Amino acid sequence: MKIQSGISLKPYNTFGIAARAERFAILRSEEDLRTILRANIAPLHLLGGGSNVLLTKDLPGLVLRNELKGIHVEKETETEVIISAGAGELWHELVLWSLAHNFGGLENLSLIPGTVGAAPIQNIGAYGAELKDVFEKLEACDLERGERRIFRAEDCRFGYRNSIFKNELKGRCLITRVWLRLSKSPTLNLSYRILADSLRNKGITDPGVREVSETVIAIRQSKLPDPARIGNAGSFFKNPEVPVQLYQSLKENYPDLPAFPLPGNDGQVKLAAAWLIEKAGWKGRRIGDAGVHEKQALVLVNYGNASGIDILNLAREIQHDILEKFAIDLQPEVNIW
Ligand code: FAD
Ligand code: NAP
Predict the structure, then answer these.
(1) 52 lines ligand 1 (CB under 6 A)
(2) Which of 96, 193, 212, 249 is 20 to 30 A from 126 via CA?
(3) CA distances (Å), 226 to each of 104, 125, 231, 302, in order?
(4) Catalytic, out of 23, 161, 177, 181
């Protein structure tokens, strides 16, 4: 394994921010992992596809990009299958692999950028499905103790775009492999109206997992910027979970404010951050090369040469404005480095 010095991270983050890593290495094997642990370079920054990070400075220490590969069927019954995937596999490649085998469970999570190993970090979710719905277990290297650990679903404390790896164990565990339980006769999740409507509009009345995946891909391509063309990290902020009373008082001034119940939490509702940002007039606005995407206000974009600080300053202005207008404190979903 080669440990390089002074590497530009521009090709390694989807915002396309030109920060540098003091040291940089690619993890491809168990042997590479032992080399890294022995080298003991601090701080260690764990990187997958770089699609959920904002680089605001050059990074001291070592940036370790995960490219551990391999997809295996571990166990199979008549109705379901347990598969495992190396943390450095691309998430969408795994989705395509599962569809090619007619395994269901990942179709709503089609076209999410990044790696398998990062999926548990924020319990990736889209169109009413979350990683936790299919999660079996994961293997990680505890970087403090230098030992292998297995985490079952309950150990990961999955929440809405959240897990133990974004909190108590932040930066402490390097995920190496993830196991998922997929179905051979899946129940489709068409709870998101846009998904059900798009299938109906295409004349598909009895969809299978492939039709659902293709429809999710088409919807996403119609409204989300392609990071290969315009730098971005998807939704910059989390959708806020607020007390019902706050929602009710806002609704008096904004009758069309969308809100969604949070299962198991009667006192709170989820609001659409994109709606708040658009209502506050930010959609399509641009400050230098940092901007708010014209089709999806939750996505901040780099039109070319924005720095991480330019994006962060724009995010702060939006946060401040949303707090003033709606008394809601938006929190970033993107990891700020
Ligand atoms: P990175 O950005 O490389 O890392 C993210 C975090 O995970 C960092 O804190 C990093 O240290 C940590 N990490 C990465 N790999 C490991 C590992 N092996 N072990 C331990 N820690 C690790 N997210 C959704 O949930 N739903 C969506 O629908 C969605 N759509 C998106 C659309 C676009 C266009 C973009 C650009 C992003 C979108 N995202 C979405 C966000 C992002 O794709 C996901 O969060 C994804 O899981 C990040 O993967 P990554 O490999 O790029 O992680
Ligand atoms: P959308 O369909 O326009 O919906 C707007 C918001 O309303 C979403 O944030 C969604 O919450 C919520 N919503 C809509 N229908 C819902 C329902 N039936 N039940 C509960 N909540 C509902 O959203 P979009 O921006 O085009 O994104 C589509 C999906 O892809 C969403 O699930 C979104 O989370 C996901 N996505 C995520 C990222 C990311 O970076 N995290 C980027 C792009 C898209 P949720 O966000 O909680 O689903």
Answers:
(1) yes
(2) 249
(3) 26, 18, 8, 12
(4) 161
What residue owns the CA closest to ligand 2's atom 9? 272
The CB of 143 under 6 Å from ligand 1? The reply is: no
Distance between the two ends of the chain, CA-based, in angstroms?
Answer: 25
Is residue 235 annotated as part of the catalytic site, yes or no? yes
93 and 174 in a single domain? The answer is yes
Q: Are residues 75 and 175 in the same domain?
A: yes
Which one of 51, 98, 110, 235 is the catalytic residue? 235
Residue 335 · residue 118 · CB < 8 Å: no
Does the annotation count 20 as an active-site position?
no
Number of domains in the chain: 3
Whether residues 241 and 332 share a domain: the answer is yes
Tell me the best of 270, 299, 331 to mutate to test the pocket of ligand 2, counting ligand atoms within 8 Å of each CB and taking the most. 270
Stretch 100-127: mean pLDDT, rounded? 98
Q: Which atom of ligand 1 is nearest to the CA of 49?
A: 52
Clarify whether residues 105 and 42 are in a common domain: no
What average pLDDT does the segment 195-202 reach? 97
**Domain match, 324 and 298 both:** yes
d(CA 191, CA 150): 32
Residue 293, in any domain of the structure: yes
Question: In terms of residue numbers, what domain contains 11?
Answer: 4-66
Mean pLDDT value across residues 210-237? 97
Ligand 1: residue of 17, 52, 90, 175 to mutate (most ligand atoms within 8 A of CB) is 52
Helix-helix angle 209-223:193-201, to 10 degrees: 110
pLDDT at res. 118: 98
Determine whether 84 is an active site residue. Answer: no
Q: Looking up tokens 């990071």, which residue turns up?
A: 227
CA angle 172, 178, 180 (to 5 degrees): 140
Ligand nearest to the CA of 231: 1
Q: Looking at the domain assignment, is residue 201 inside a domain? A: no
On whether residue 205 sits in a domain, the answer given is no
Query: pLDDT tens digits for 321-333?
Result: 999 999 999 999 9
